[in-house]
Write a structure and sequence with these properties.
24% of the residues lie in helices and 19% in strands. It is of the alpha/beta class. The strands form 2 sheets. A 7-stranded parallel sheet has the order 8-7-6-11-9-12-10. Strands 1-4-3-5-2 form a 5-stranded mixed sheet. The longest helix is centred in the middle third of the chain and has 13 residues. The N and C termini lie far apart (42 Å). This is tRNA G18 (Ribose-2'-O)-methylase SpoU.
Length: 268
């Protein structure tokens, strides 16, 4: 690849994708689910380069950008840490940052079917998950523990919010996702595709999660709600089964990211 272009002026228009990311983690005026995907850190940027997302530009401190195996059509820029910090609005500790074009949500029918409609399949369904870091942590566990995709209700945070991508270590880029606009009625399409939907809740009348046999339910979709309120009664009612993670008396619940990882592993 050619040597990275050295940026000395923080107002240089060539690095506009990275300007003032601290303000809402995306350039001011960008729509809620809009703007480029921003990826931080060498390992996450390498995952971005291996993903289907088109990389627009890479920006970092001297040495970090040149060490990446970038295609010729990716713009590469470097600057000292002071100029880099002034551009993005905070101190970047991971040395390199990249921008990429977004991809639209997957077609719901195609995501539900998967490459082989007869194969076992696992999905995570998120309701009102408005914390970007929790979403990123769930995505990282999902990819590690055999989840094939994410289904989001309309109130979920942007899955490609900078902090979500950062916490996922870039793994969220490998997970297809679709949006269920008519929530929770769209769960009917999930059921029609052969999925058992499992609503996680700490309620004492829910079944023990360990009693759900993954072999007997080769297609499973785990429903997870926001930290604190959890799943709405409407979402729980629409699910096939309500399940709880058994815990010691006196502990009423786990954080949603931890609960998600346990459920993904249990139902693998």
């Amino acid at each position: 690849m050619p040597s990275p272009v050295v940026i000395t002026d923080p107002q240089d228009p060539r690095v506009a994708d990275f300007r003032d990311l601290k303000a809402g983690d995306r350039p001011e005026g960008t729509p809620r689910w809009g703007g480029p995907v921003i990826v931080e850190g060498v390992s996450a940027v390498e995952r971005l380069l291996d993903s289907p997302y088109r990389v627009r530009a890479v920006f970092g401190v001297p040495g970090r950008v040149a060490a990446l195996d970038l295609p010729d059509d990716v713009a590469a820029y470097e600057a000292d840490k002071w100029v880099l910090s002034e551009v993005i609005g905070f101190r970047l500790t991971r040395g390199v940052i990249a921008s990429a074009d977004r991809m639209p949500p997957a077609d719901l029918g195609e995501l539900l079917a998967g490459p082989d409609p007869a194969a076992p399949r696992r999905l995570a369904v998120l309701e009102g998950l408005n914390d970007a870091e929790n979403l990123g942590s769930i995505a990282r566990s999902a990819l590690a523990l055999g989840i094939d995709g994410l289904l989001l209700d309309p109130r979920c945070a942007d899955p490609f919010y900078r902090r979500s991508v950062r916490v996922s270590m870039g793994h969220i880029l490998a997970l297809p996702f679709a949006v269920l606009p008519d929530w929770p009625a769209d769960l009917g399409q999930v059921h029609d595709a052969g999925y058992t939907t499992v609503a996680l809740t700490p309620a004492p009348d829910a079944v023990d999660l360990r009693d759900l046999d993954p072999v007997a339910h080769p297609r499973t979709a785990v429903l997870l709600g926001a930290e604190g309120p959890g799943l709405t009664p409407e979402a729980q009612q629409a699910a096939t089964v309500r399940a709880r993670i058994p815990m010691r008396p006196g502990v009423d619940s786990l954080g949603v990211a931890a609960a998600a990882a346990i459920a993904f592993a249990t139902l693998r």
